[in-house]
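Incident review: delayed structure delivery

Summary: a single-chain prediction request sat in the queue longer than the usual turnaround. Root cause was a stuck worker, restarted by the on-call engineer. No data loss occurred. The affected request and its eventual output are reproduced below so the record is complete for anyone auditing the incident later.

Affected input:
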Amino acid sequence: MADTIIGYVKQYGDYTFKEKPMNDVDSLVLCQFAYLKFDGMVPGVLQDRTFVSIRRVAAHADYEHLYADTRYEKSNRALFEAMLRSRRFSRLKMNYYVNIVEPAKETQFSAITFLLEDGTIYLAYRGTDETIVGWKEDFNMAYLFPIPGQTYSLKYLEVVAGKVSGSFYVGGHSKGGNLAICAAMQCAAEIQERIIKIYNMDGPGFRPEVLKQFDYEKIAGRIVKILPHSSLIGMIFETDTRYHVVESKGFGLLQHDPYTWLVKDGGFVYAKDLYRSSKFTNSTINEWVLSLDEEHLKTFVNTVFQVLSASQAKDLIEFTADWRKSMNGVIAALREVDDETKKILKDMIKALAVLGRKRLINTQLKGVGAESTKQKISSGSTGRRSMKKRE
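Output delivered after worker restart:
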């Protein structure tokens, strides 16, 4: 029976990394673990201190702060406790933690370095957290490179690579996966050579010009990109088809949650490909975004978050805690948007709708054409068989 990463840690926790080397599921465990709030418990990236054990973190006076993001508090707590009880992760050590949230610069960045009991080193970038500014930075990726988080990701890799020896892994979930590739793509050749694998767990890709600028193919062979069945976020700007698709117990956008990804017999339960509807939606949105100029994209993104900010919520937890109050602020803000901006938004949404209809019609016509061809081939072969019988 399929389980999740929590079940995986419980079931395979008796194996050390020497007995069962690190795999893709372990990578997701560490990427999710990077979401916990280690502030004040793990040494900072600019400090020269020894790695802190997971046991020491568990005994820390501020232990409960780990679960400050209440959206996943229950699952994160279960993961931490399972790791602590396992042979596999109970000797895990951590260092070089950084957590930056700068609303004025529209920046949310966090990363941490893990040391496994067999000496394996894993640099994990946190994905988008619960802060509104974190989501704003994600949207900025549509028209801006590098966003501040991407700049920080390269600096982090350079600093940590100078502090540790040997080879290492780099990875992250969601935006964290994008940051891992971004840093690996831009770092010096001597650092690139030390990277074993780069994990992108359902994180967005890059605009084509960025991939070309930094010679993406230099590292492409070491990238492991894993997507859930109905991936949307992970397919933004994604042109590389060398990805793996994992089954999820969630639906739609909820599949972005790593706790919904299915694991069986010590590995992910893989599917053949993304759902056809997901591929259609993703390609339509990507084509639409790439067809817009920077000015219009910036207007769209800034207006969306101007409206969301009107709720006066500092994060998504606060936004959803009093949903009625938040929505009242959003509705009021929509009325205040100037006519010119409203027209731009309407035109952009209309363009997306027109493109979607056009692509749908073309897809249907191709389907009809293929079916017609099949029928002709079928009827032609039947006719030949009939003639042979008459002869």
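Verification: The longest strand covers residues 93-102.
Action items: add queue-age alerting; document worker restart procedure.
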